[in-house]
Design a protein that fits this description.
Length: 224
């Protein structure tokens, strides 16, 4: 499948898959999307609802590492201690990683080494990115996740249901529900009715929220 680096609406880049006409991030802005969906509506919401400063995050679709890197930067600001697990079946190639401009666009050039470290660490091993940010990248299919009561927050960032509908089913969200702690949160850029219903059938309380630039709505699911 042909893959190429493209610039998105906010100046940050993403990977475009020509055969699917699909991107790793929104064409309207990769960084804007990540900050709105996963930081504002996910991480900051969780922090505002909890008194703890320690949490475990599961990302479905580690991809370019953008969500992990923005979370790492936000954790520094909020003085959080994070254990971050990123699941990815098909890791991004080194030449693609080298073409990503996230540190520059986030004015975080002094943390570029941390971004590269996230990609250089071994798969399926816990690594220390900083004293308050632990990362484990797991190379496997989402269907293989069998965790129980482990995560406070889930970033569900799989490719869209249009191209991979099997990743947006009741069975997948049941796995998410089982992997999450009580009173935990799942956020995703998707707002499809079929996705919302699959989440509800799996046991989540689901709310529609304003979406990132270029998208009217997104979903946040709560395990109560």
């Amino acid at each position: 499948m042909e893959r190429k680096i493209i610039k998105t609406g906010d100046g940050s880049v993403t990977i475009h898959l020509s055969e699917w006409d699909e991107q790793y991030h929104s064409k309207h802005g990769a960084i804007q999307e990540a900050q709105h969906v996963f930081i504002k509506m996910g991480l900051q919401y969780w922090v505002g609802s909890n008194k703890e400063n320690k949490l475990s995050i599961l990302e479905i679709g580690f991809g370019t590492g953008l969500n992990a890197f923005i979370t790492f930067l936000e954790a520094k600001k909020l003085k959080l201690n994070i254990n971050y697990t990123g699941v990815e079946a098909y890791p991004v190639a080194k030449n693609e990683i080298d073409a990503l401009n996230y540190a520059e666009m986030l004015s975080a050039e002094n943390q570029l080494h941390s971004f590269h470290k996230m990609h250089e660490i071994l798969w399926n091993e816990v690594a220390t990115i900083s004293e308050s940010f632990q990362l484990e990248k797991q190379q496997k299919r989402f269907e293989e996740i069998e965790d129980r009561d482990k995560y406070d927050l889930v970033f569900f960032d799989a490719f869209g249901a249009r191209v991979q509908p099997e990743l947006w089913t009741e069975q997948i969200f049941a796995k998410m529900f089982a992997a999450m702690k009580k009173n935990s949160v799942l956020v995703t850029y998707s707002a499809k009715g079929s996705v919302r219903r699959a989440m509800q059938t799996a046991g989540f309380i689901v709310e529609r929220l304003p979406g990132p630039p270029g998208k009217r709505e997104m979903l946040r699911a709560l395990k109560n």
